[in-house]
Amino acid sequence: MLKFLLFAAPFLYAFIAMKLSAWQMQRKLRRDSSPMNDVAVRRLHQKLARVAKIESIDIRIHEVSPINGMVLPNGEIYITRGLMNCYLRGDISGEELASVVAHEIGHVLLGHAKGRLASFAGQNAARILLGALFNRFIPFLGAFLAQALITLFFKRLSRDDEFAADAYASALLTAAGIGTQPQKSLFRKLPTLTGQSGGGIAWLMSHPRIEDRIHAIEKREERWKSDEDHQMPTHS
Questions:
Q1: CA atoms within a 13 Å half-sphere pointing along the CA-CB vector of 206
Q2: Strands across the sheet containing 77-80
Q3: In a domain, 38, yes or no
Q4: Which member of 49, 163, 172, 190 has the lowest number of beta carbons within 10 Å of its beta carbon?
């Protein structure tokens, strides 16, 4: 019984930490955000909702300056004030902003949002178990080695999720009559808008490199040209 409790303790800790983190994040985002009420953009979002066969899309603006979009496990979609300001200044179009929302819809409908919570719990549990195991053979360094391996593994999973959400967004934008051009043009603008190159060592990044994401979209378009009956990726 004691051995079982010792084995189960990391998983119980990870589960509690996961729930607490999700609750705190949702509470903070709700407190620090406001509804997105731009009529033209909302019209584009509702077009996406009809194609995705969901009742409506309610977007909230997170009042922070970094340029980003995010989705919570309960399906709430947020874009940052920094991203919205890019649209209001004319740096990006409404269609380019809609491509961000389409990407976040992909995360929701493909189950990534809830999966990331489970991933968070898994990381914590694995970090404790592997750290304890490695410390038996490499004292003091075991925990650092476990952290490094777990981080690389879950960053790879994160990149796969981003590619999948990009694919869903491409199909959704195409089906809605918007097309993939805004998706690609926004990616090309991101290094200038964010002040970051978007490059780097791929396997150290949680998001794919921008050029890889654009290339994947273009390869997808080539396949679609020879298959007019393409469909959006399925979701549960």
A1: 4
A2: 33-35, 59-62, 77-80, 69-71
A3: no
A4: 163
Q: Which of 14-18, 59-63, 84-88 has the lowest mean pLDDT?
A: 14-18
Q: Determine, yes or no, domain membership for 105.
A: yes
User: Can you name the residues that pair with 80 across neighbouring β-strands?
Assistant: 62
Nearest Cα neighbor of 126 from 140, 141, 146 is 146
Give the model confidence (pLDDT) of 35-48 as tens digits.
988 999 989 999 99
172-222 tens-digit pLDDT = 999 999 999 999 999 999 989 988 755 544 444 557 889 999 999 999 998
- Residue indicated by tokens 């918007």: 178
| Contact indicator for 64, 110 with CB cutoff of 8 Å | no
Domain range for 10: 2-24+95-225
Mean pLDDT for the chain overall? 77
Question: Could you give phi then psi for residue 178, rounded to 5 degrees?
Answer: -90, -40
What are residue 61's DSSP bridge partners?
A: 34, 79
Flag whether 48 is in a domain: no
